[in-house]
Amino acid sequence: MTDRRDFLKASLLATSALALPRISRAATTVSGSVPGKVGARVVSTWDFGVPANQAAWAVLGKGGKPLDAVEKGVMVPESDLNNHSVGRAGYPDRDGHVTLDASIMDGDGRCGAVAALEHIGHPINVARKVMENTPHVLLVGDGALEFALQQGFKKEHLLTPESEKAWHEWLKQAKYKPVANSENIDYHRSVQNLGMPGGKNNHDTIGMLAVDADGHLAGACTTSGMAWKLHGRVGDSPIIGAGLYVDNEVGGATSTGVGEEVIRTAGSFLVVELMRHGRSPQEACEEAVRRIVKKRPDAAKELQVGFLALRRDGECGAYAIQKGFTYAVCDMQQQDRLLASPSVYQTTYT
Ligand code: ASP
Q1: CA proximity to 259, closest of 284, 222, 231
Q2: 285 pLDDT exceeds 90?
Q3: Ligand 1 cavity residues, CB under 6 Å
Q4: What is the pTM assigned to this prediction?
């Protein structure tokens, strides 16, 4: 099974290089750690982090603010209609509503977030407005939509025909089961119009962290959450300290995977605190994953969680429960690097 999957992944990645010229290299190197002291750097989750990083780099590489860079960066997968786990074309909940979660945080502690937001394709922009234009951190549901409209955002219809078709397929059995990972197969499959809407994967997130040459950081995190979730379900991504945490004194962390597990362990805050107390970004991600596995060892065999961390000197680390988590790294030296994260388990469950 693993061989077949590996073969499938290899051929999908090979053909997708043609379909997606901006993702120029496959994640062939397994590495959790990339040394720092490189000046500015931006890192993000999954293969779709590569084009997202490039958009962020267009800001950061010119000396722009990390906060502006991460906001611009994550807007790329948010508007990608082939991406069914983030933004506009996200898979809906079990009732057919596309509800989006997003958060943004500056290394000085300012942050904003929206959860279960409907009808707005770029929830990250609304999260930033929450941060800048309200005394609050998190707005949810109808209140978040009302605020967005007051701020001048336009209401959109987010359920694309392809996502609607996948939802109807799902309704035939209507069984909720988070399917890790991904290995980004669903993304590549849909990009190439290979059919099978609904694909294998039914959740992912873009989490992005950026540091400038002076060690100032920012992060952004945005997702449509778990496909076919209960209406009103909120994941880790808009919860500051769970899906995202950034502190200029230390570094930042972000997560992807089954958000309930990340919330239970205050995952991203934990990673940053471990770094504060001397762990490397890699060691901190490993410890955060270990805590999840230790708490629920049986459940952990069948779910994916991945952490990505960036220290203020630019060193980054990544670790996941299952094989298949990838992350993208972009700096002055190389703008389209994609790496495979090490993991607890060496094969992906079926
Ligand atoms: N963390 C996201 C959520 O639970 C989903 C994912 O990243 O796979 O909503």
Answers
A1: 222
A2: yes
A3: 203-205, 223, 225-226, 235-237, 256-259
A4: 0.88
